[in-house]
Amino acid sequence: MYEQHRWPRLAWIPIVAGTVWLWTTAQIGLVPFLLLLPVGGLLLAAGIAHLLWPGDVHITQTMALASAIGLLALIPGAFWLGLGASALLAALAVACLLAAGSAAVYQEPFLSGVPRPEPGLGLAAKVAADEIVLGLEQFSVGLPTGDEARRLLGEIRAARELFGERGWMADPTSYHMDPPALEQPTSKSAHSGRIQYEHLSFESGYAPHPQEPGRQRWLGYGPTRTGHAYLLRHRDGDRPWMICNNGYRTGLPAIDLRTFWHYYETLGLNVLIPVLPLHGPRRIGRISGDGFFSGEVLDSVHAEAQAIWDIRRLIGWARSQGARAIGATGLSLGGYTTALLACLEPGLACAVVGVPVSDLARIFWRHGPKQQLGYFAHVEIDQALVQQVLKVVAPLAMEPLVPPIGRMIFGGISDRLVPPDHIRDLAVHWDDAKTVWYQGGHLTFMLDPRVQAGIDTTLRDVKLIAPRG
Questions:
Q1: 165-175: per-residue pLDDT in tens?
Q2: Which of 45, 114, 117, 310 could pair with 227 in a Cys bridge, judged by C-beta atoms 3.0 to 4.6 Å apart?
Q3: Of 461, 403, 405, nearest in space to 434 by CA
Q4: What is the pTM of this model?
């Protein structure tokens, strides 16, 4: 960790910015002042909080979110403010964004086995993007309390006992059932902008084991019963296939087709993008991904178990379509799923995982609401207990089947969503797998050309793409 000061100087940037925002908007009328009050108020509050209580991750997240909201609000707000005042407030909002990113970089500890961040405006801007996302997530994550928390404790303890009795704790791979063949999914031609793709759907057929806690609740989530996937397929020649697993909050063709477009357009692979349970058309809440990090631990177990079940069925179908070689990749939560798939599906040529979570309990305790996590501890739900149950879907508890030459990981040194210890621990578990570290956060991996170069090299090494001529 870089040197820490009792009174961080960066705190004065949002304090000044918030004060100027409040003063400026107060001069132009009651309505615009009230509309823009949350921006100035949040910036001022975040600055004071960072000055008095530095180190709380939610302070920089709130600062970044308020800055981003302010920049968006200035688009219509310029009508009242005028060009000069709008430019001043925009400059202050950008300064606060950079201050939030910079503060986030400076307050993280140095980790053994992870290169040190190189502070600067570029890195601050990249990290600020992560902080905005985490600022939004503060409003979407809530945990069970009261009787629901005690019910959850009983469910977790019952699962731990059952998993132990059936040998799944000792051998987590035995928890996963071999799925039946997928004969013929329904295929519909679809468009996302100018991109034409096939939308596949099929009856998943997955169900948790009999007597598993949370089984009936999971079966009651209707949208998860139907599997979905997006397919980009070349019509000429015998092409290798790439399974591309979506990240948390995605599962939407507008995002995922473009995220994995390089594999199809540039590298010439057939690209199959399964939609993870609880995401995209399989969501059960308002937003894609709702329910995965809700605190319902068995829902997370069943979501990952069903993801592997569905993906393995799709891989079998791809082989029936003539796929001569298949690799897998994924980002963030999709990286976790890919790492798990690499332990359960034989015959994969490679597993390329980007910014991957490697321990669901650890990431939950990193980002969960602190007060509610304290209540969890009060009712005897702690990280170690949750990790025991999640072991049956934990890639760190299983050995990869993918040959070492096909294992590749990339991660951000200053990633705020998935801290770099997750990347480091997975790389070590994978026998020091090839790892590309980049100076950046969770969302900016494509800004470093070494990432794509590392991916392409791995695909050449396993002969999924041709060597350079």
A1: 999 999 999 99
A2: 310
A3: 405
A4: 0.95
Q: How confident is the model at residue 1 (pLDDT cuts 50, 70, 90)?
A: low
pLDDT higher than threshold 80 for residue 143:
yes
The 8 Å CB, 24+ separation contacts for 207-214 are 208/298, 208/302, 208/305, 209/166, 209/175, 209/177, 211/162, 212/159, 212/162, 212/298, 212/302, 213/155, 213/156, 213/158, 213/159, 213/162, 213/298, 214/155, 214/159, 214/296, 214/298, 214/299, 214/301, 214/302
Write down how long the chain is.
469
Tokens of 276: 């993870």
Instruction: Give the containing element (helix H, strand E) for 271.
Output: strand 270-274
Mean pLDDT of the chain: 95
* 106 DSSP 8-state letter: H
Strand ranges across the sheet with 195-203: 186-192, 195-203, 226-232, 270-274, 241-245, 326-331, 351-354, 407-412, 434-438
Helices (H), 53-139: 57-81, 83-106, 121-137
pLDDT at position 236 is 85
